[in-house]
Amino acid sequence: MARDQRVKVEVPGPDQDKPNLGRVGIVAAVGFLIGIAWPWLAGVQLVPSVPGEPVPVQAAEPKPSADPSAAPATKTAAAPKPKPEPEHEAADRIKLGEAKVTSCRDAAGDKLEKCDTIAVDQMAQARLRALAGCKGAESAHGMLSLGFELDFKQKKVSRVMRGMSTTLPDGTTEALLRCARKEFAAASLDGIEHQHSEYKVFYPIEFLPPGEARRDDGVEADTGNEVTAASGVATVSWNVAIIRDAPNQDGERIARILSGTRVTVLGRQGEWYKVKYDAKGSEGWVYKAAIGL
């Protein structure tokens, strides 16, 4: 026979129906330590972090070398190029002497006993220096006396010839004469002051040995202190030519004359010409290149 089982229900009294706050505090403290404090101290991440925008990855730039003298790895220091040696023109091997009038003729063709001096440097010097580039002049060494006849009726150089003081070999001389005839074929006599119809003029031309001009670099030529007589008319070729009271750069400036002004040549000293430059007859010194000489 089954026994009757009765359920016993105990109803707490008013003084017993209260939570045990002490236990609750202990349980809360233990839960805080296990769930929050311990993972934070141990560095354990229990939940995923909030997603954010991806941070762009930048290429790492090469750090500069600690040695300031070190060149960048991507660049190669270019070696300095050697400076080219100055080229010496062939004309440096030529030394021109003073032009000399050896004879002259009047309009009738008669030879005169006395001739005036004419200024032919402006017409002749550049052409004579060009002879250094002629075929046969490469190894020339010696003196060439070169003369030409000026025909003012036809206003041209009518003849080119050799002089008695020539020391160059005949073959070299003939080659230079052929070259000179070509140089003077188109020469104009316009602007050359003269009194007679025909003149014969000679230039002494010294050809230095090959390489001697190079050895003379930096040595200033001795122009001397003597004033050489000269005559003729020249025209200012520079925009402004400076007239000085002495034949050098230290001379005091006494006047300025403009391009195209005609001056009367009175004398020469080295690289300078003494000229009469105005209607009053004022005189002074001007550098030769300023008047095309």
The gist of it:
This protein has 293 residues and is of the alpha+beta class. It has helices at residues 21-42, 121-129, 170-184, 212-215; strands at residues 94-96, 100-105, 142-151, 156-162, 198-207, 228-235, 240-244, 253-258, 262-269, 272-276, 283-287. Among the domains are: 90-210, no CATH class; 227-293, SH3 Domains (SH3 type barrels).
Summary tags:
single chain; 5-stranded antiparallel sheet; 4-stranded antiparallel sheet
How would you characterize the overall build of this protein?
By secondary structure, this protein is of the alpha+beta class. Among the domains are: 121 residues, no CATH class; 67 residues, Roll (SH3 type barrels), CATH 2.30.30.40. It is built from 4 helices and 11 strands, in the order αββαββαβαββββββ. Strands 1, 2, 3, 4 and 5 form a 5-stranded antiparallel beta sheet that branches. It is rod-shaped, with a radius of gyration of 53 Å. About 9% of the residues have low confidence.
**Low-pLDDT segments, ≥5 res:** 50-57, 80-88, 214-223
Helix content: 10-25%
H-E string: HEEHEEHEHEEEEEE
Q: Strand count, sense and closure of the main sheet?
A: 5 strands, antiparallel
Q: Mean pLDDT score, rounded?
A: 76
Question: Cα distance, first to last residue?
Answer: 161 Å
Overall shape: rod-shaped
Structural class, from secondary structure content?
alpha+beta
DSSP strand content: 15-25%
Number of helices in the DSSP assignment: 4
Query: What is the radius of gyration?
Result: 53 Å
How many E strands? Answer: 11
